[in-house]
Amino acid sequence: MEDSLKEYKEKRNPKKTPEPMGGKSSRKPIFVVQKHDASHLHYDFRLEIGNVLKSWAVPKGPSLNPKDRRLAVMTEDHPLDYANFEGVITEGYGAGTVMIWDKGSVVAEEPMEEGLKKGKLSFKLNGKKLKGGWSLIQMRGGRNWLLAKRGDEYASNRDILAEEPNSAVSGKSMEKIASG
To answer: What does the alpha-carbon distance between residue 61 and residue 160 come to, in Å, rounded to a whole number?
Structure first.
């Protein structure tokens, strides 16, 4: 899967950006949701699959309400150590502030590689903010997917994005991260 990082690396200059350029696999598969204030504020939803972070940009962010289906646009794969990146990208692609909004482990309900090929991923998250069953469903074979919370004991109508806006790792707000 190392070749899957080619697009990621082509878009970045390690001499100009603090973003990680590679990393090793974790013992337990991980997920991370990074709040990213680039050209527009969005949430990057990333799942460890095959030694990389498969990534989707979610403009409205995740919702705990199973009735909500959030657009998730697949983007380039990211290296695993990107899951620990919180800071400011100063130049080039994706310039802006990045926060680790949530992070934890992910348990696949079927092999993730198979789910990617079929266009449907089913998994459980165990993060600080996001827990329980989730699905990513591909729309007509393209880059657009839908992210949805499944109905379980962790589902609710709470607006988790508004109620818990700060970093799950540092506790900092976007403004604090941006100011260094």
So the answer is: 10
Q: Which residue range is the domain that position 64 belongs to?
A: 2-178
Burial degree of 29 (CB within 10 A; 0-12, 13-18, 19+) = middle
The continuous run of DSSP H or E covering 133 comes out as strand 131-138
Count structural domains, the chain. Answer: 1
Strand partners for 164: none
Give the whole-angstrom CA distance, residue 32 versus residue 117: 22
Q: Which two tokens stand for residue 120?
A: 């449907």
Whether the Cβ atoms of residue 43 and residue 24 lie closer than 8 Å to each other? no
Amino acid occupying residue 51: N
Per-residue pLDDT of the chain (180 residues; tens, 9 = 90+): 446 656 655 655 555 565 555 555 557 899 999 999 998 999 999 999 988 999 999 999 999 999 999 999 999 999 999 999 999 988 777 789 999 999 999 999 999 999 999 999 999 999 999 999 999 999 987 999 999 999 999 999 999 999 999 999 999 999 999 998
d(CA 143, CA 164): 29
Cβ-based neighbours of 140, under 8 Å, separated by 6 or more: none
What's the rounded Cα separation, in Å, for the pair 16 and 130?
33
